[in-house]
Every structure is written in structure tokens, then in C-alpha cells.
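How it folds
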Amino acid sequence: MKKGAAAMETLRLRGTDEQNLRAFAIGAVLFQMNGLLEETGFAWPTARREELRKLLSHTWSVKDEESLHRHLNWLLEEGGQASYRKTEMFLGALSFKDRERYFDRLSSNAALYNHARLVQMYTGKLPRAGIAAWDLGQYVFICRTAHSAGWLEGEHALELAKAASQKAQSLYRDWSEYAAAYLAGRQIWTNQPSAEAAKPYVVCVSKLLTDPRSLWKRLEWGMPLGTVSEENDKLDARN
């Protein structure tokens, strides 16, 4: 590792290792929004380790290795998708009039009202997997950041990212479908109905979908990644 405030640590990612790059590609939006570059293996400057720990704590309540693995497991097994699906099923069981009455009762609670309205807005417009894309994108970003923060070994971070990438591949048909679910999930996670708040992420996703140099354009969605069960077997053996 190089010395100095601007030094970067690496995760053994090589430009020719497409499978490893593909593992981290589902976190590409958050990598780009945070200025992390492919050529450095999406590494944070080593001088920012303490800042990264504060970021993980403030944004995801990850304060140490134990809470890190607890949150990663939650994202993989439940995540925001569980809440989205629960609300979707509840609203779907109501008649139009009962649903409007329900929204009227929520009008004094902005957080609950916005959540319910956003779920209703996306109901029937997303793939069967719903907003799991946002959970998995966060998962990969957190793995990479936790490695830079010193809470996750490099090889283990890569194994976890591969497992999340394989799961995403099993849930969505292509990058476009993944992108739509990702943007919906982020909007529901932030609980902001405004299109203006989502604009920077929409621009980033559009570039990933269209720029020939982007990871999403260079790496095919359907490229061989193994199976989720195979990667889970590796993680079970490791743990």
C-alpha cells in the first residue's frame, strides 16, 4: 500500500478481471455518486478511514464488524423490499374507497403518507422482485466501503459482492430492469416523492445504461457468475 494522505488501498481488482468487476457493477451508482473510480478498484483514500466509519454509522447504523454483518444479512434477506412488499399487499387488499380513506388518515404523518403513496405509485410497474435492486446495490457499496474502513477483509468483501451480484442476476432480466427497480427503491428509501430529489441518480443511471465506457454497457448482465447457492456454500464454509 502506498503511503501518504492520498494513498489508495486496493481490493485485488484487475482491469482484465471481468467477473470481479461484474460483482461490483451492481453498486456502480453509489460508487459514481461518491466519486469512486474503477481504475482504483473503487477504493476510498486511506486517510478517510475514520470518516468512512462515521458514514457507515450515520447512514446505515453500522458501528463495528458485528453490526456490519447484521446489516448486510438484513439487506440480503429482507431489506427495504420486505417493507415495500408488505405495504403493497396491504394496499392491494383495500377497495379504492378504503384506500383513499387510509391515505386521509395518514395525511398528518408525512413519512407514512409518502411511503404509502410511493408504494402505490410503483405497484404493478416493477418486476416481480420489486425494489430488491436498491438493497443489493447498497449491499455491494457497503461491502466496499467497510473494506476501506478496515472492518472487512478484501477477499471476503469480494465474495460477498459476488453473492449479491448473483442474487441480483437471478431476480432481474437485464440492466434496464435492475435500474428501474433501483431508482424506485432509492426513492422509497429516502421517502422523497419529488422528481427533483431523484434527478442526480436518474442522470447517473442513464449514463450507466448508455455510455459505451460504463460498466453496465461493457459487462453483460447475463455473463456467467455461478449460482447464488454456490457462493453461499463458500461463505458458509468460510464462516
Observations:
- The two ends are 27 Å apart (CA to CA).
